[in-house]
Amino acid sequence: MADLLIRGAALVLTMDDGRREFAGADILCRDGVIAAVGPGLAAPGAAVLDAGGCLVTPGLVNTHHHLYQTMTRAVPEAQDALLFGWLRTLYPIWARMGPEEIRVSALAGLAELALSGCTLTSDHLYLFPNGARLDDTIDAAREIGVRLLATRGAMSIGESAGGLPPDSLVEDEAAILNDCIRVIDAFHDPNPGAMIQVGVAPCSPFSVSRELMRDAAILARDKGVRLHTHLAENDEDIAYSEANFGCRPGQYAEDLGWTGDDVWHAHCVKLDGAEIGLFARSRTGVAHCPCSNCRLGSGIAPVRAMRDAGVPVGLGVDGSASNDTSNLVAEARTAMLLQRVTRGADAMSAREALEIATRGGAEVLGRRDLGQIAPGFRADLAIWDVSGVETAGSWDPAALLLAGPTRVRDLIVEGRPVVRDGRLTTIDLDAVIADQTRLARGLLS
User: Fold this and answer.
1) Fewer CB within 10 Å, N side or C side of the chain?
2) 254, exposed or middle or buried, with CB in 10 Å at 0-12, 13-18, 19+?
């Protein structure tokens, strides 16, 4: 791989341990790794990317998504529903999907993420209709060229057994665990610089058994992979836990081995003070999904309290049936604004929200090689043109979330360009959009 020299950035926001910011700086990338950061770097023979008029940040990290949902945005009957009603409306539609729908929907969602500055995303695929497999999403990520933590989700308790999903979408628990082993053995890369990793992710406490939650945690730790599920998303979620398990979600998670620095939970809107303390002590991570929580009326997660207590927090766009976009920089802005609404204008700065979206997400996903622009870290970089109308008159180019673009000019992953001059370099996006539209219309009809 040829060296890459990113030259003359207006500002480099490193997110390193000193939170340093460099004006008029260069970044040298060698073999997919950042080799040097500073002004006037020399690199004979390197490919040069002019970053004049641009802000450079670490690539953004998305800690929770359901990429298959990108094909079911703005479904009319689900637009104004709370979580459980929303799910009951969409389950029958998702049951009609298959491998092509899963793969094309992932391509569209990953493309949208990349254009919003995302270099690493997790994905939570918990239903596998009509022969679909986790492999379909992994193929899409390889084609786009972004990093993926693909989690093998599952649902095992259908309506007939008191669960939410229809019986047609649940799986046998032994088969679930066997397929978890298959995809981990086939795709998980534990090494620094990994492009594809795999996690274990039963969908939620209300769609799988207590036994599967416990067995999944044992399996994941035996294989050395991460654990993920939904937790404490809204008041219905809390009520279900108390009625069926006799405790709050945090206690349920702890009892079954679902706390620790290898675990992260999506949403956590309704965590109370004791649960926040539990997550802080155990270093259990949280994927904060503010837009989805707003869209479904779930509430505002106590992110300020979590951060102050020491809970690792990253951002997630969640599925595009509940957001309904996959724009991670817009998600970061919403996270900042919601904390200000609840706690005051000084509750969260633009820089802190961007930190959550970069090194915060990398920590939650266990990627100590990502999230900073510093020598030795992987060369995952988002380059934002701050010379346009969105930032005209701005006194602070680092305040991207206050005044700045929501799409990158360039995106570099492992030292390779995925977006250049605002266009994806790896796929024919127009063809993907055409396929997505055709398949969505098929579901509609």
Assistant:
1) C
2) middle
